[in-house]
Amino acid sequence: MHLKRWITGLSALPFLIFLIYLGGVPFILLIGFVCGCSLWEYYRIVFNAAPQTLFNPVIWWGYLISLCILIAAYVDGPQSVLAFVALNLILAGLISVFIYKTNPAVVDIIQKQVLGIVYIPLSLSFLVTIRHDPDGMVWIFFLLAIIFVGDISAYYVGSYLGRRKLSPAISPGKTVEGAIGGIAGNLLAGIIGKYFFLPSLPWGPVIIFFIVAGLAGQVGDLFESEMKRSSKIKDSGGLLPGHGGFLDRVDALLFASPVAYIFKVIIF
What we know:
Layout: H1 2-22, H2 24-46, H3 57-75, H4 78-99, H5 106-132, H6 136-161, E1 165-167, E2 171-175, H7 176-197, H8 203-230, H9 246-267
Antiparallel strand pairs: 1-2
Helix pairs in contact: 1-2, 2-3, 2-5, 2-9, 3-4, 3-5, 4-5, 5-6, 5-9, 6-7, 6-8, 6-9, 7-8, 8-9
């Protein structure tokens, strides 16, 4: 399992770096691909007991609006993104009016679809907005390093030193020691990245950013574990050997990306 994780990660890393470096349309395509795969996996989790729901019109509309959200983030920023999130709710409600008579469960479908749109494409849209800025490439690499190094640190510290369970009801494998190791990894990656690539950032706020982003990432990881446990699913998918699915790989990033946007735009 460890070998598979490293082979998959190192194989994908050059492509990830190259597409982030290119920015623009290639980066949008990358985020769109990750968004589509993650949204599909999310729907598989929340509708595990009713797989036929994956073909409901409300679900397919969700894929289209997700693409619109990402494009809007690139073209016009957060203002248009919020408009499309609201439009999703309106049109999902409109669709439900026509199919409620034959499928009363559409109300539950809409609730989970709206959560999915906020959870995945809205969160990923912050990465698109950040990358569109002149210094966006550095910030994307900065954030990914913080989250990925923290994730790796939490995994190995928890595996070898973990004793006290962090949240056994949600994820029995996660430990307090692993969580502390993850924050230490966030700090280490952040300090190195700040020193070499973003030296102008003030140390006080930036240390707070490393910790808050790391904690948000851990909450994101636990949130996805909650959904999987409630549906009795181990992994969100199997497209990434050793890692599970795309949602398993980006769950922390989904919660950390809004934090990065807030710190970059409002605080720094």
